[in-house]
Write a structure and sequence with these properties.
Layout lengths: L2 H7 L18 H4 L12 H4 L5 H4 L1 E4 L3 E5 L9 E5 L11 H22 L3 E5 L16 E6 L6 H6 L8 H13 L1
Antiparallel strand pairs: 1-2, 2-3, 3-5, 4-5
Length: 180
């Protein structure tokens, strides 16, 4: 940044100013694709259940599937429902896995409604890289709570989403509500 840019902006990059910029350098890992799994051994959906619920950001565990916080959420309370088995295609799920993914998705919606009162949800699975799957090798169902007016110029212009709740805090609140 040259002297003109510093003078015009009134501050250095990353330093608060009148524009109240939201700096999210941690998202560069996601944007640049760092840390994407290359096989089963480093798949976050395979390794997460091997950790404690807190460390793995797990909200609930079932017999065939589990519910985990999205590390790069679109909104507060963005959950993922994943089979334990490393499988990429929805048609390859067993009957029991399909049933439990559906049941956990329904319960996730109930819990999030009880905790944060969203006005609606986006539910979905992106099958394959071309369809937008960030981790295409391991199937996961998105449960994204939505509120009226929750999307503004930030995602469009700034390619940034403001998420006002830390993942650990959201995980704790949702896990406590899940258990009733």
């Amino acid at each position: 940044m040259d002297d003109f840019e510093i003078e015009a902006s009134g501050s250095l990059p990353g330093v608060p100013d009148a524009f109240q910029r939201l700096w999210t350098p941690h998202r560069m890992v996601y944007i640049e694709g760092e840390g994407k799994p290359t096989g089963d051994h480093d798949c976050p959906f395979c390794t997460s259940p091997q950790r404690s619920d807190e460390d793995g950001l797990i909200v609930a565990r079932g017999e065939h599937a589990f519910v985990v916080m999205n590390l790069f959420p679109y909104s507060p309370g963005h959950l993922l429902v994943c089979p334990y088995r490393h499988v990429s295609d929805y048609t390859d799920l067993t009957v029991d896995e399909t049933r439990e993914v559906a049941e956990l998705t329904q319960q996730a919606m109930r819990v999030v409604r009880g905790v944060s009162k969203p006005h609606g949800f986006n539910l979905g699975m992106n099958q394959g890289d071309v369809a937008g799957a960030g981790i295409a090798a391991h199937l996961h169902q998105h449960v994204v709570p939505r509120w009226k007016g929750d999307m503004n110029f930030m995602p469009v212009i700034g390619q940034t989403r403001a998420v006002p709740q830390l993942l650990g805090d959201a995980r704790r609140i949702l896990a406590e509500a899940w258990r009733g």
